[in-house]
Design brief:
With 311 residues, this protein is α/β, with parallel strands linked by helices. The protein is 38% helix and 22% strand. α1 (2-15) packs parallel to α7 (135-148), α3 runs parallel beside α5 and α8 (196-207) crosses α12. It starts with a helix and ends with a helix.
Amino acid sequence: MKNALLNSISNRLKNDKDAIFLTADLGFMLLEELQENFPDQFFNVGISEANMIGIAGGLARTGKSVICYSMSPFVTLRCLEQVRMHLSIGQQDITLIGVGAGYAYGPQGCSHHSVEDLGVMLSMAGINIYSIMSPSDLERTVKHQAKYKKPSYIRIGRSEPFALKNSNSKIIEIDLILTNKSTQNDHIQVFTTGSMTNYATKAFESISSELNSKLSIYNITQLKPFPTECLLKAIGENSKILTLEQNILNGGLSSLIANQVLQNQLKIKSFNSLNLPDEFIKKAGSEKDLMRLAAIDELSIAKKIREIDNE
């Protein structure tokens, strides 16, 4: 994922001399190449995320296209008022790139856990939201955002990414990642986003052959604007829906899909969600350890799918 980030930003700065990259003192052993190759387009503003967004707002007003990079809880929550003023209200050409979704920075403790940023950012008016699954997913998202130049938030995890086989699909589409091709009427449809797709695919590999139902895994990268038409085409009348995300229940992917199911009066059999708990896990540990404690690791996902299969 680091190489994809470096390549994507390098291409962006190379192809657009009005593009500016700001970092809040993050990216050692990664961004030095950017700084060396683009000295007039790269600025380290120090550990001052709110100031970084203010600087980005000023640059954007002069016609620059600005990318702001930091850990996901810091580039969103720490500077939320500035994000609201410059991106939401001002509609300026600023892209926030937040690395460390969910428990990616687990060893650093609760202050670095990014468990509610999706819900918060989805509630902000006029900001496009992308949750990254894989390196190719990141590359196509950066290209997409550069074309439309809308205020955006790109959320990146740090866990082992899933390799997207079809990287040519449009960012606004919902990617069918895996299916066991069963001919059963019941269809368990798992909708996931970002690094949760990796956990979902591991669960799929462990249980797909033992299920009575057809099982399909879908990834959704663009969460806002939400790909409603794609979702409506994907969901069938015999669907048992399960949503997965590294975010608390309120305001995230589960809320988005549930809203579409209700608004469009879709006839499904059941709706379930696995989310991060509505509380902070006050322990330091690896992402895998914290995901296990939160009961949203691949074993917990497999257990939930079995329960849905037996309904």
